User: Which sequence fits this backbone?
């Protein structure tokens, strides 16, 4: 009888100790969750504060820029480009605790700053245009020149259409050497069945309405923007990629921030394997980091679910990726009947 009573008391004490242990663990887990939530909130608040500060600093510098010595302007734009690159890196490293809406909003802010920087540079440092003088045109007198108003010049300039680097080409092989490419903003429009080689390190790359094209590019210091492209193959290294309204494209990419797609379908990604003789040297000159490649971190603005990957893009299987680019280019040219 005494042994039974002792057993009951022992079991009661054991249950009491187990209960206390469970309660202690619950308190610890609760405290951990509270600290984690507090840490995340503090992280988001700190990010927003620093992000806004960096954005305002770049905006103020762009707004305050005035016509000046070319070398001085170039130095200012180089500094701004470096700050924008650092801002992109800071944002990318913070996406781990940001929701999709915040990611989209901040990326749009950075894209707008990049666009504003390019527009300001084009306004203050316009590219020289080459042309032949018409000798038959009579020289304007000093009186005529004096009558010409600044407003009239501005109106005439505003009427000029955007000048694409190249456009409206069919079944051609186009090559752009580093002398024409380095630090320049390249733009291509309405190409079909073309192969485009781009050597050197460009500032930015914009492509629109490309169909059945192969784009083989070196380093792009800032952004690559493409829209309305169909059945194309791209290979390049860049800081960021924005792809809009495109379909059935294979992209071999080295990207130091993130690739963003919107209104796209059947887009496939793989790490960039295309190289040429001075590729690594061009990468260094562009300021890109070969050790950072977020090729598989793709954001889809039409797919906000965090549980499942967007159905609009996929990774190219390893056994289906291009390894012999010379052979692929040769077959591509034959298949699309491109003149060489």
Assistant:
């Amino acid at each position: 009888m005494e042994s039974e009573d002792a057993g009951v008391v022992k079991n009661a004490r054991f249950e009491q100790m187990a209960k206390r242990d469970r309660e202690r663990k619950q308190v610890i887990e609760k405290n951990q969750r509270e600290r984690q939530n507090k840490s995340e909130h503090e992280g988001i608040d700190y990010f927003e504060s620093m992000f806004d500060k960096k954005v305002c600093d770049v905006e103020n510098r762009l707004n305050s820029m005035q016509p000046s010595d070319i070398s001085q302007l170039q130095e200012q734009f180089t500094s701004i480009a470096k700050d924008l690159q650092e801002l992109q890196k800071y944002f990318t490293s913070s996406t781990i605790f940001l929701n999709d809406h915040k990611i989209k909003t901040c990326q749009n802010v950075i894209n707008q700053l990049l666009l504003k920087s390019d527009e300001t540079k084009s306004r203050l440092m316009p590219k020289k245009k080459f042309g032949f003088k018409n000798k038959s045109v009579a020289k304007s007198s000093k009186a005529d020149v004096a009558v010409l108003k600044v407003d009239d010049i501005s109106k005439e300039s505003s009427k000029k259409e955007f000048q694409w680097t190249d456009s409206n080409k069919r079944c051609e092989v186009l090559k752009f050497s580093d002398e024409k490419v380095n630090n320049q903003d390249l733009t291509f429009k309405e190409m079909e069945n073309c192969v485009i080689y781009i050597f050197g390190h460009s500032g930015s790359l914009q492509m629109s309405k490309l169909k059945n094209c192969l784009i083989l590019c070196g380093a792009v210091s800032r952004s690559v923007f493409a829209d309305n492209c169909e059945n194309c193959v791209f290979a390049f290294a860049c800081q960021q990629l924005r792809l809009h309204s495109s379909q059935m494209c294979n992209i071999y990419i080295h990207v130091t921030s993130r690739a963003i797609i919107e209104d796209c379908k059947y887009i496939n990604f793989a790490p960039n394997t295309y190289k040429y003789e001075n590729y690594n040297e061009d990468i260094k000159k562009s300021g890109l980091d070969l050790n950072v490649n977020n090729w598989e971190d793709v954001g889809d603005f039409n797919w906000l679910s965090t549980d499942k990957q967007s159905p609009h893009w996929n990774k190219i299987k390893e056994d289906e990726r291009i390894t012999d680019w010379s052979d692929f280019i040769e077959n591509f040219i034959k298949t699309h009947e491109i003149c060489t």
